[in-house]
Design goal:
Length: about 350
């Protein structure tokens, strides 16, 4: 029995096999290297060139608004979460006690002016008394001299001479006493009668008290120190102590992000590097900024109860260091709120 001849591949099958081989070679020689190059580029661009953390929060200056004088709130001029401008009135205290203080200080100033005028008149009067005493003293000296001549001639008794001598001595002592009293009045007048009343110490003290009373009266109206948004304003009838926090003001236009990177991510982070920020409130919005500063200590060092790392039970934990990211100005359509969470990526190279 003869063997049958093996079937031969047709002419159409051979080119099909060749096309598949060529496609495989093209994939191996071109596509695979391109994919590998893309993968390596992605690793290079994202690995090592950036550090990222989602432990970040929006921050801004929070100014405590205080009343500089104590008093009861009579009128509140703003509402909760209202935007205010610098110098805008926020609330007013009861002005009645301070008006009484101004009136009292004005009366005290007038009394001081009257007292100083009386002292000047007393000074002039004392000068006149000294002049009169000196005239009497000169007459007493002459009388003593005459009585001495008469006694020497035995025209009068010695007692007459003694009386004249005593009168002269008393007149001299009176002059000394009046001059001391004049110095006392001059000292009360700040060194002399010619010193203006406005330069007298007592007048200046009373005038300062009046100015302080007027200043206290002007402070019953509390104004916004900066432009921003107010929070938790006081209520009418509430009593405020001087210097106590009455409400809070979040300053506008100066937001930043506090990113808490782990210490191992900060090896190559330094001020001036660019950063991108995504706030969770606006997931499709990207903020641009730069590293402004790094905290000199970890966050744990500023806690109320710092970590006791010298104890026997110790576990090493990577600490976080606050990094301040300065944000570029943003548009009013995306207002930032302090405390909002964010994701920060810092470009290292």
């Amino acid at each position: 029995m003869s063997n049958a001849a093996a079937p031969q591949p047709s002419a159409a099958v051979v080119p099909m096999h060749r096309s598949r081989r060529r496609l495989q070679r093209l994939i191996l020689l071109v596509a695979v290297p391109v994919v590998a190059l893309i993968a390596v580029s992605a690793v290079y661009l994202t690995g090592g060139r950036y550090v990222e953390t989602d432990n970040a929060y929006v921050k801004a200056d929070k100014v405590p608004v205080s009343a500089e004088v104590a008093g009861m709130v009579t009128e509140v001029l703003v509402a909760e979460n209202q935007n205010v401008t610098a110098g805008q009135p926020l609330f007013r205290l009861d002005p009645a006690p301070f008006r009484v203080g101004v009136a009292k200080a004005e009366a005290q100033l007038a009394q001081v002016r009257t007292n100083l005028a009386a002292l000047k008149a007393s000074y002039r009067e004392k000068q006149a008394e000294i002049a009169l005493a000196r005239t009497k003293y000169a007459f007493a000296l002459k009388d003593q001299q005459r009585q001495g001549e008469l006694v020497a001639k035995n025209f009068v008794s010695a007692s007459k001479f003694d009386d004249a001598k005593q009168s002269a001595e008393l007149a001299g002592q009176q002059i000394a006493a009046l001059e001391q009293d004049l110095k006392r009045i001059a000292a009360s007048l700040g060194g002399g009668v010619d010193v203006p009343i406005e330069r007298q110490a007592s007048y200046r003290e009373a005038f300062a008290a009046l100015e302080q009373a007027k200043l206290d009266l002007s402070r019953v109206e509390v104004r916004a120190p900066l432009t921003g948004t107010v929070s938790k304003p006081p209520k009418p009838g509430q009593y405020l102590a001087a210097g106590g926090t009455a409400m809070a003001l979040v300053v506008s236009g100066n937001h930043w992000v506090e990113a808490n990177f782990t210490e191992t991510d900060l090896t190559y982070v330094h001020p001036g590097q660019s950063a991108t920020v995504r706030v969770d409130t606006y997931p499709d919005k990207v903020w641009h900024g730069q590293v402004e500063s790094l905290s000199p200590a970890t966050g744990a060092e500023f806690s109320l109860i710092p970590a006791q790392n010298a104890t026997g039970n110790w576990v090493k934990i990577a600490q976080r260091v606050p990094v301040r990211i300065k944000l570029a100005p943003t548009d009013a359509d995306h207002p930032l709120r302090i405390g909002a969470t964010a994701t920060v990526s810092v470009q290292l190279k």
